[in-house]
Amino acid sequence: MKKIKNIILIIAIVAIGGGLWWWWQHEKQYPSTDDAYLQAHILTIASQVGGHIAEVAVQENQQVEKGALLVQIDTAILEAALTTAQAQYELAQQNAGASGSNVSAATAGLASARAALAEAEMDYDRNERLFKLGDVAQAALDQAITARDQAKANVSAAEASLAAARNQAGAPGEDNASVRAALGALTAAEINLENARIAAPADGWVANINLRPGQVVASGQPLFSLVEAGDWWVDANFKETDLPRIRPGQPVTLSLDMYPGVVLKGEVQSIGAGSGAVFSLLPPQNATGNWVKVTQRFPVRIKLESKPDDPALQLRVGASVTATIDTTAGVAAK
To answer: In this structure, what CATH number is given to the domain that contains residue 35?
Structure first.
């Protein structure tokens, strides 16, 4: 009887040891963690213009498609600003045209002054020759000199007027600085009017919305969030002792706590460069006499490669996940 008990004890010890060995090997090859959470891109929807909200076209948790209307801001003030900008642009074009006409007039005035100077110089030369011959009096020569000097002064004045007209006019047509400034203001007014219609930048679900028609919002004010329906991933925190066997590209089995029995597939995408403690608001300071060694955890990003077959099982950001990595896949380190 005692011999039988010893045999049973030995068998039990072997079974327990074998079970522990199998569990240790399994855990070594298939590291797992329940410190993992489902993630997606969350966009903050903000207003690029200020004003009264005329329409709220969505509600909390509503699914929307890219380009769909989310919020419409009243456009009365923006339309008035656009009309003003259009008028200022047209006025700038008119002023540029008038300045061009002034340049043309100043150019013509300079040409006329130069012609008058040439004529006055010819008259002076003729009177000077006649005076030397004694055919004209000194008064006639003095009058010719005065006319020549006046013509020179008129040319100088015409040149100054032309330079001033050119400086005031600037570049011609659409290259004119005033016209370009007015065109920029007009373009900004058109963009502001377009931004009064806030559309969905991507497919997803509306979250954290609390808006009502008539509410006043400011430019740049965050209004609500949009959870994108595109890329989903899991941020899983694994023990540092598991990292030597984890490589990008290895397959991952994912179980969601919110949907028992539903198993999803994933793939290791990257391994964090630092532990979660390092990037915390108050990193731990271990330079003390009572330091206790704690196994650190490092974030591993897992790309979600499948979604629930049932459309009713909607994925939700922040859901708890259990991630198990198959390190036997033999993926080379990247």
So the answer is: 2.40.50.100
